[in-house]
Amino acid sequence: MPVGFAEGLSFDHTRTNWTGDGPRPLSWTMWYPAVDSANETLATEHPIFRLHPIAPDAALKNAGKPHPLVLLSHGSSGVTFGLVINRLRSGRQHVLLWCHIRHPDHRSVRS
Length: 111
Description:
The protein is mainly beta. It has a 6-stranded mixed beta sheet with strand order 3-4-1-2-6-5. 9% of the residues lie in helices and 37% in strands. It is built from 1 helix and 6 strands; from the N terminus they run βββββαβ. The chain has one domain.
């Protein structure tokens, strides 16, 4: 099963950013079950881990059906990428969307 991958930036208008002059940015990454015909490429964001194929911005499998959303906090100094890809690739989580909000001060986050 191809694993879809998307990144984005949202804003929390109820909080200010770290300089106090605008809304708080929320950088996020999402992994999800992609359609079987999705084009996959090797994920190289974290090269210290085994490379996994992902399908950037692929269509969601069973898009017309509801999917539960699981928010994952990887903890301090954890790396979400390996956790999520391994679970989705196992095929047991074929209906889950995984979303991760990146911590702005996390040392491994690249902007």
